[in-house]
Amino acid sequence: MTEPEEPERSRRTATSAAGGIRVSVETAIPDPEIERFQLLYEEAFGPLRTRAIARQVLHPGEFHQEMTDPRIQKHVARAPDGEPIGLTTLTRHLETVPWISPEYFAARFPQHAERGAIYYAGFTLVAPGARQGAAFHVMIESVVRILAAERAAVGWDICSYNNSRFSFADALRTAIGERATVDIAVEDSQTYYAARFIGDGADKGD
Length: 206
Description:
six-stranded mixed beta sheet, 6 strands, alpha+beta
């Protein structure tokens, strides 16, 4: 049995800048910033607890683990004063995403799998005051730069509520298409059902 590799230290390398907002790719988020992003995450995703059947919200412990796992890239947008205002997660270690099947992606993109060029994008957060600004776009640019350089395949998921209410799929398709030549397709879907029993059948008669 081999010893586990020592976690890589936090790395902050500016990758994009626009309107004074800079984005860095980090391997670990400091605890004070984790608390800030946890609040933003809860604000953005908390309502989905009652609007989506599939669980969309990480538990606090899961969120903290993701923020400190060096296998998961954290693309962090910061205002000119250094204040963190946005976060996007990306990983090529698909085993860190418990709700997907890495085997599916390996079978679907075998050539990408051979060279370790399959990624999954987790979630994107932007502080309320920055949602109409450049933070979202420079984070997407940071992610796209990595994926385009590797000619990678990447997956992500959007629940039907967010798609119908906010048109996330169209917005993301547009943002990506402005920065790279890319082929985007719907890969899978799942329909959830519910049954409400109103009797034991005896009232139906013969």
